[in-house]
Amino acid sequence: MTDKTPAQRRYARNRDLLITTAREIITQQGLDNFSMRSLAEKADYSPSATYKYFKNKEEILEEISKEGWEILDTLTITQTKLASASGESIYQSAVAWLKFVNEYPNHYFLMFNQTTKSPNPLKEFVQLASFTNLVKEIETGIKRKEIYLPIGSTPMETAFNLIVLLHGLSTLRLTKFAQDTQEFDRLSEKTMRQFVQYLTK
Length: 201
Hints:
Elements: H1 6-29, H2 36-43, H3 47-50, H4 57-80, H5 86-103, H6 105-113, H7 121-126, H8 129-143, H9 155-174, H10 181-200
């Protein structure tokens, strides 16, 4: 594999700068105030120059969304290292998810509010590292006789149920309970503990 040329490295740096600037605009001013024009102004580019790197703002938002999944995967791996038993590992995965929502709310919003162009979005979703790792944790727990699923349930279905629960909690935290996060976080933690207890009894 050949090294990148100076022009290619410069292109990559400028592209990364625009993504960073877009992230700053969304964090500071909100998604509604993000546009190719606002991006050009903040990055000190001409409006036409930004189109050399991205076709439209949706392409930039998709990049930030991908970045969000990568951050979530890293947080999950780090958090699950704290666990020794499978049930605790599943709980720590949930903790990582809620921690991510707290620290990266704009990323989370983009990850779940971008219209997908995939012909099979469910298949694409269950192939994400965050989901497949959770399925593996459940499968490992079953083999160790630490996790017990209801008759007829599969590890994939159980992982999906947990993601649905986490997404519901996350959405409530970012909207209805945005001004009362301390009490809501306490209830969320209790809810996740109860979910894991249901699997480990």
